[in-house]
């Protein structure tokens, strides 16, 4: 295949590397503005979650193409880090949102779709046994 020579492959890999690197950097840069300018915790939490998931993921894909171009080897470690980020960033953002709801962090009044109050089934019950440091805690069952 004459069109698949080394120069054409190098140019294609350089173009892909530049595209993914610029796209990842732009997404990370824009999401940092979201973290700074949004009004409350619930809105600010989306900036870092999106940046680590998509922005850093694209930068890691650009790194994979770069090392494929320079060293002519595929680094599985970069792919594993990308997969790890894609799995853990949404989970950590979800857990942060749940903690904020349980801590009853206030949301901005002008925010549409503000988080609702926790329903009764979402809140854990007091344990039946008292805490060792506070013998008065815990629910007492009457016989």
Automatic annotation (TrEMBL):
Keywords: Membrane, Transmembrane, Transmembrane helix. It holds the Pfam family PhaG_MnhG_YufB. The keyword Ubl conjugation does not apply. One of its GO terms (molecular function) is sodium:proton antiporter activity. Signal peptide: none annotated. The chain crosses the membrane at residues 16-39, 51-70, 76-97. InterPro entries: PhaG_MnhG_YufB (IPR005133). PANTHER family: ANTIPORTER SUBUNIT MNHG2-RELATED. NCBIfam families: CPA3_mnhG_phaG, PRK12674.1-5. This is Na(+)/H(+) antiporter subunit G.
């Amino acid at each position: 295949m004459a069109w698949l020579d080394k120069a054409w492959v190098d140019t294609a890999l350089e173009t892909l590397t530049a595209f993914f690197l610029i796209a990842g950097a732009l997404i990370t840069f824009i999401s940092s503005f979201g973290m700074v300018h949004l009004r409350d915790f619930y809105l600010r939490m989306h900036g870092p979650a999106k940046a680590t998931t998509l922005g850093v993921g694209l930068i890691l894909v650009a790194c994979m193409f770069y090392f494929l171009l320079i060293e002519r080897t595929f680094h599985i470690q970069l792919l594993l880090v990308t997969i790890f980020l894609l799995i853990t960033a949404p989970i950590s953002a979800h857990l942060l949102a749940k903690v904020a709801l349980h801590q009853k962090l206030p949301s901005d009044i002008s925010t549409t779709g503000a988080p609702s109050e926790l329903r009764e089934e979402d809140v854990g019950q007091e344990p039946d046994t008292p805490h060792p440091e506070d013998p008065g805690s815990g629910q007492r069952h009457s016989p």
